[in-house]
Structures are given as structure tokens and as C-alpha cells.
Amino acid sequence: MADHKESKMEELAHKIHSKISSPSSSSDSDEDKRSHARAVALKAKVYRLFGREKPLHQVLGAGKPADILLWRNKKLSGGVLGGVTSLWFLFEMLDYHLITLICHLMILALSVLFLWSNASNFINKSCNP
């Protein structure tokens, strides 16, 4: 009986060794191939960041924001980084406040609109004799 168990163990070890050494051999059944494919898929999931299945670009929305965050458009990403850094510098280092910034931007916009409207009156004026 002990010999029978040893022979079964040897047979099992031989099957495992043959499957490991040649997983795509012709002796594999369809079920073995499917289970092998599932094991490979599970193994691939384990090695991806946070176990995700989609690429990171698709996870982020696959649009302009994803391109900016992944630095695919380097000029735009650099501009966004520069703008955010300047805002951080204004608010944190110079102790500037958001309400003050909004008020100054509105005053600037009002001044530009006022000058534009006055300049357009002088430019579009025709001389009548």
C-alpha cells in the first residue's frame, strides 16, 4: 500500500513537472488551457498597480485632463504646473488672499472693458463734413 501511495505521488509530481516545463503541450486538455489562462490573468492582475485592469490613461478619463496629468502634452502640463506654482506662491508665500485676488481681477477686467469701449468709439467714428 505504501508503494501504491509513492507511485501515485511520483505520478503526480511528474504531471506537475511536465505541465510546468511545457504548458502549451498537445496533451493539455481544453479545461487545463482555460485554467492556465485564468491563472495567467490573475497573475497579471496581481502585478498591476492597485489591481486595476484598465490602463492608467483610461482610468483618468482618457481625455485632456489625463494627458495633462500623465505629461503627454508637455507644454500644457508645464503651463499648468507653472500656474499652480505661481498661485501657491501668491497665497502661501506672499500671504495673499483669494477674495483680494478676485477683486483685483474684476477691477482689471472692468478697466480693460472701459478702455476698449472708449477706444472703439474713437476708432469707429467717421468724419462728417
From TrEMBL:
It comes from the Eukaryota. It is a multi-pass membrane protein. The chain crosses the membrane at residues 97-116. Keywords: Endoplasmic reticulum, Membrane, Transmembrane, Transmembrane helix. One of its GO terms (biological process) is response to bacterium. Signal peptide: none annotated. This is Reticulon-like protein.
